[in-house]
Design a protein that fits this description.
Blueprint (H helix, E strand, L loop, with lengths): L2 H4 L10 E5 L3 H6 L5 H22 L3 E8 L7 H24 L2 E6 L7 H14 L5 E9 L1 H14 L9 H6 L11 E4 L18 E4 L9 H13 L13
Parallel strand pairs: 1-2, 1-5, 2-4, 3-4, 5-6
Helix pairs in contact: 3-4, 4-5
The structure holds 3-methylbut-3-enyl trihydrogen diphosphate (2 copies) and magnesium ion.
C-alpha cells in the first residue's frame, strides 16, 4: 500500500477531469420526512464541501450534473425551487468560489431560463474566467443528445464539409470544447444509468456508482471513489505491451 493510501490522505493518481451525477436528493429528504426541496438544499451544501475537496485533491476539472433537459418534466414547484436554488448559489457562493480560484462554466442551454438568472450566469462566467485552480462546469438545462444535436446544427450552418467531420471537430462543437474528456464519472444514490449525461465525452470514462445519496456523499466518500479509480487499469481498447 502506498504511503498516501496508508495515511488516509490522497490517492496516488487522481483524475484530471471528474464528473458527478449528483443523484438522490429527493430520497434523502423523503427518508427524513422532509420535502424534496430540502434534499436539494442539502445537496447544494454538500456541493460546496465537494468543490473544496476537489481543490485539495488536485482535481483540475469538475463537471456536475445539476439539471437535465428532462428535469423540466418534474412538477412545476420543484422546477421553480431548483431554479431559485441555482440563483441563490450564485448570489451567495460566487465570491468564495472566485477567491478559491474556481473558474465557472455552464454546459447546456441558457434559453428557457429567466433573463435575470441568465444575466447572473453570464456575470459569474465573466468574473471567474481567468481563474485556473479548478474549472467547474455546471451542467444545467443540459442533455447529452441535445448537445450533439446542437453541434450538428451548428456544423451544418457553418457549412462544414463531410470529410472534415472528425472526432476533434465534433468535440470542438460541444459545450466542453477545449477540455479533456472526463476520466471518472461518479453517480450517487445507487442508480446505474447515464441519464443523458456527457454522451459523447464519456466514451472511455471510468464509472463509479455508490448507493450513498448525494447530500451524504462527503469528502471521505470522494476519497474512496478516487482510490478505486487509481487502481483501475484503463485500456482504451488496446492491449498493454507484453512485460514478460
Ligand atoms: C438529483 O436528485 C438532483 C436533480 C435531478 C435535480 P433527485 O431529485 O433526482 O433525487 P431522487 O433521485 O428523486 O432521489
Ligand atoms: C440525473 O438524475 C440528472 C441530474 C442529476 C441532474 P435524474 O434523477 O433526473 O435521472 P433519472 O430520472 O433517475 O434517470
Ligand atoms: Mg434522481
Amino acid at each position: 500500500m502506498s504511503k498516501h493510501q496508508a495515511n488516509g490522505d490522497l490517492p496516488d493518481r487522481v483524475p484530471v477531469h471528474l464528473a458527478i451525477i449528483m443523484d438522490g436528493n429527493g430520497r434523502w429528504a423523503r427518508e427524513r420526512g422532509l420535502p424534496r426541496l430540502a434534499g436539494h438544499r442539502a445537496g447544494t451544501e454538500n456541493l460546496r464541501r465537494i468543490i473544496r475537496a476537489c481543490v485539495e485533491f488536485g482535481i483540475k476539472i469538475l463537471t456536475i450534473y445539476a439539471f437535465s433537459t428532462e428535469n423540466w418534466g418534474r412538477p412545476e414547484s420543484e422546477v421553480r425551487g431548483l431554479l431559485s436554488i441555482l440563483e441563490q448559489v450564485i448570489d451567495r457562493e460566487l465570491d468564495e468560489l472566485h477567491q478559491q480560484g474556481v473558474q465557472l462554466r455552464h454546459l447546456g442551454r441558457l434559453e428557457g431560463i429567466s433573463p435575470e438568472l441568465q444575466r447572473k450566469v453570464r456575470q459569474a462566467i465573466e468574473l471567474t474566467k481567468n481563474n485556473d485552480r479548478l474549472i467547474l462546469n455546471v451542467a444545467f438545462n443540459y442533455g447529452g443528445r441535445d448537445e450533439i444535436l446542437q453541434a450538428v446544427r451548428r456544423m451544418l450552418a457553418d457549412k462544414v464539409r463531410p470529410e472534415d467531420v472528425t472526432d476533434e471537430l465534433m468535440s470542438s462543437y460541444l459545450y466542453t470544447a477545449g477540455l479533456p474528456d472526463p476520466d471518472l464519472i461518479i453517480r450517487t444514490s445507487g442508480e446505474l444509468r447515464v441519464s443523458n449525461f456527457l454522451i459523447w465525452q464519456a466514451a472511455y470514462a471510468e464509472f463509479y456508482a455508490t448507493p450513498v445519496y448525494w447530500p451524504d456523499f462527503d469528502k471521505e466518500e470522494l476519497r474512496k471513489a478516487l482510490i478505486h479509480y487509481s487502481r483501475r487499469e484503463r485500456r482504451f481498447g488496446v492491449l498493454k505491451p507484453e512485460t514478460t
